[in-house]
Write a structure and sequence with these properties.
The complex is a heterodimer of chains A (153) and B (132). Chain A has 153 residues and is an all-alpha fold. Chain A is built from 5 helices and no strands. Chain B has one domain: Fumarate reductase/succinate dehydrogenase, transmembrane subunit (3 helical TM bundles of succinate and fumarate reductases), CATH 1.20.1300.10. The complex binds protoporphyrin IX containing FE.
Chain lengths: 153, 132
């Protein structure tokens, strides 16, 4: 079963799981590369010293960016796990016999890792926000305020 | 391994002659992908799950880069993700930009950008000396 008869069938876009995974892999890959460039710039600011670096980092320390971080985590996990699926299909001699099982496993593994990491990232956001803000700060404050008012330490 | 002789290439031209560059590029995507699971996913877990980016400050980065090991880790991550991402985007551009002139321009822009960011990232990792 490892080889199929090769016939010309016109379009390769069949609209099944494989096509969606391919499209998803491409979108996450391009998005990750774009993020990588921004990330290199923001990290390079460290050469300008603590004030400038931490001033720039402060922009990211709010709930909106935390949602963005969860999205970044989703993109990395989805691309990495689906990438491993592609590698299994291409380089493992039996890979192409188990394509359906590999598709489903990739999605299950993604959810199994993504759900607990999301929980940790959101939970620890509120814990740290409450801990670092002045007395009387509520969870709602932590959610809607663009820049949480950190206790000056 | 049994091989299949391909007789019908659909609407594509059979790849006759040339170099094996595309084969090596294909293989490189898979090998670098394996390393990036450790490097990129590892980096995400260290910075966003085991630590919290709310605690990220100058001291945190300086302390990591006090050891040559983390500088090496970060440089490998930088190098492999730029190479893997650049080759990935090269494929996307070949697939999606039909006009030859625009495609060449986009590819040159990509190679220029990637080289510049690789140099910037490497410079930061080598030149950083903590101020406090
Ligand atoms: C975390 C581990 C990663 C794994 C296992 C992985 C795996 C792969 C594989 C196997 C391919 C080839 C797909 C194909 O030929 O059909 C690929 C494509 C690609 N990857 Fe990754 N990758 C990873 C991380 C990254 C990162 C960090 C970036 C961003 C810099 C990235 C950007 C891309 C791009 C732009 C493509 C081209 C998409 C396409 O051709 O449709 N990857 N990846």
């Amino acid at each position: 079963m490892a080889y199929q008869d090769i016939v010309s069938t016109g379009s390769v876009y069949k609209g099944r799981t494989g096509m969606w995974l391919y499209l998803f892999h491409r979108i996450t890959g391009v998005a990750l590369f774009g993020y990588l460039l921004l990330h290199i710039i923001s990290t390079a600011l460290i050469l300008a010293g603590p004030e400038i670096y931490e001033g720039a980092e402060a922009i990211y320390k709010n709930f909106y960016f935390r949602i963005g971080e969860v999205g970044l985590m989703a993109a990395v996990l989805a691309h990495a796990i689906n990438g491993l699926r592609i590698i299994a299909v291409d380089l493992w001699s039996k890979g192409s016999d188990y394509q359906k099982a590999l598709n489903i496993s990739a999605m299950i593994v993604f959810i199994a890792i993504f759900v607990p990491t999301t929980y940790k990232m959101i939970d620890s956001y509120f814990e740290l926000c409450l801990e670092k803000s002045s007395a009387g700060t509520t969870i709602v404050d932590c959610m809607i305020r663009p820049l949480p008012d950190w206790k000056t330490k | 391994m049994k091989s299949v002789k391909r007789t019908d290439w659909g609407r594509r031209t059979p790849p006759i002659g040339g170099t094996n560059f595309e084969l090596y590029a294909w293989f490189f995507m898979r090998i670098s992908g394996l390393f990036l699971v450790l490097l990129a996913a590892g980096h995400m877990f260290i910075m966003h799950v085991f630590n919290d980016t709310l605690n990220l400050d100058y001291e945190f980065v300086a302390a990591r880069w006090d050891t040559p090991y983390w500088r090496t880790f970060d440089w490998l991550l930088l190098t492999l993700s730029i190479l893997h991402g650049t080759n990935g985007l090269r494929i996307v551009m070949h697939d999606n930009i039909a006009n030859k002139t625009f495609r060449q321009l986009a590819l040159y822009g990509l190679y220029f950008t990637s080289t510049a960011f690789f140099i910037l990232g490497t410079y930061v990792l080598v030149a950083f000396v903590r101020e406090v």
